[in-house]
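Per reviewer request, we include the raw input and output of the structure prediction for the construct analysed in the revised manuscript.
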Amino acid sequence: MISFVGAGAGDPDLITVAGLKALQAADIVFYDRLLNPLLLLLAPKKAELVSVGKSPRSKGHAQNWITNLLLQATKTQQHVVRLKGGDAGIFGRLDEEIAPIKAAGLPYQIIPGITAASALAAYSGIPLTKRGISHGVTFLTGTQLLDGQLPISLQQQEQTIVVYMGVKHAPAIQASLLTQLPADLPMLIGRWVSYGRQEIIPATLADFVTIMQQRQIENPAIYLFGAVAADYQANTNWFAAKPLFGTRILLVLPELNYEKATFFTTQGADVWVISQDMAENQRFKTITKAWLVDVAQVQVLLTASISAVLFEQQLLNLDLPAIPIEQIQTASEFLAKRGYSRDATEDFSG
């Protein structure tokens, strides 16, 4: 049995109940680069975790290799989970990955997820459709807009248009759309949508490429074009108003714990975890290493009886970069300084 599970777009709480149940029953999980790695903490400790993510900066795994890997695992494992960011059926190559499963007559299920377009609109505080303004939504990829490959119909001009995977070809996308849509068309650029590092930048069709260059916007990013984007204001960005929004936290626990980690994500923080258990840390070492690329932005929060010295030794044992002592404090102290209740601080003190 294989479950194709949409993990949602960034915020780990966006996974569906059905997706959560599938993940908790997995024997092996094949996961993508863009999903929130905290979700992997929900898989059983015995489950094998296999990264099959692709990156614009590297060649990554060939799709045929991934597809064959899924097929072989489904033949030998009781429950396989293919965990994909967003919704597996929206530009997620679901058709390619599921075809050999169907051909072999193997059991499968598809569990939808919240796609990045929905998350961008919701976390911007705007709708995707609006009576009398936008009567529909069109999802496109950046390559579909290159060199006028996909003309925008008159009907689509009255809709919200969301472009996935368009960073690399932004100038060509802009040039294509400018021949079909007004230059002052409002739009939003969304990056790391629904994560604590989320960026939402208002622009117009005429100036969004310049803004991206000035802001050095890289993947993952998504564009939303249409009149509904004019509804975006700084005060509609409710997620950015959360008390810990923009804080990058490495939470150090006696053992990995999804609920403790997501306490901070519900407050708007961007979070990853390590524990005192070296086996757990080795299991997630690749994720931890990638998460600590920009050490200067990380706030380390210690829990229970874990000392700064012990934490630094853990980093050394894992061959990870050291973190300055001034960026390390207890989780209780961190929360108390920010006015959280005693109940909240005590949850991390013992």
